[in-house]
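Filed under: proteins

Residues; backbone shape codes:
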Amino acid sequence: MKSKRVALVIPSALKSMSKDTVFSFIYAYSYLLNRMDDLPFTIEHLEIIAPAEFPIDACRNMAVAEVLDGNFDTTVWFDADQTFPKNMIFRLLNNPEPIVSGMYYLKAPPYYPIVFKETRDTDFLWFKPVVEYPGDDYFYADMIGMGCVKIDVKVFKEIAKTFTDKIEFFKYGVNPITIDVMEHETDDLKLKKAKLRQKYVIRDVSEDVYFWKQVREKTDYKIVIDPKIQCGHIGQLEITQTLFKNFYESKLDMVKSENPEEHKKIMELVCRAEAIKSAS
């Protein structure tokens, strides 16, 4: 049986995390230790990597540097403001796909999944949240967060080959919506802010967008979503799949009763995901 070096990566740029995050991670870690004999490979070395650099893009880049320097085979990434099901680490490692992610949701309404598909509804490339997805089947995504994902190290190595100067996996970016606002928005305040963002290169897009863009453009690897791994996202509330679905369905029901034509238009534009295979 093949042996692997596994890194559990918890970027800690803010140098703190919720006790609920800590407890759920400990449960998931303990579950893995008790089930390691059931994995399709032997874990030769298991290490927790928690760099504390700031900002978060530097923190994530340091984590990848440690992973590459330590000759690891695969990584599982966590975020410090989430909760995890106890079988999360085991389930991710048990999946042979190079990139596999669980699901979690935006902290504020409309609480949509942080799972996206590419869209060209505007003049630039952007993303739509996948709000309808097969609850028991794997499906593909084009962009996700980094909060509960397994990434084999060969993905990072493939990207690294393409750099001719410095190697940079994660980097904050400028929101392309800024460009759209400048071209189409009439609201003076929004236009003013958009111009300031462009003039001063205000980086307001999270660092993981840059990474997943590289995965799409520089590799042939796909992001597989396992909807049976449901994580919480801790804000003022713990955002879960149930809260998202209740909010989403109630909003749709309200629109349907008040304006059936508007409801029909919304449903035509809804971003859906198709099943790959059963997430058994």
The longest helix spans residues 241-258.
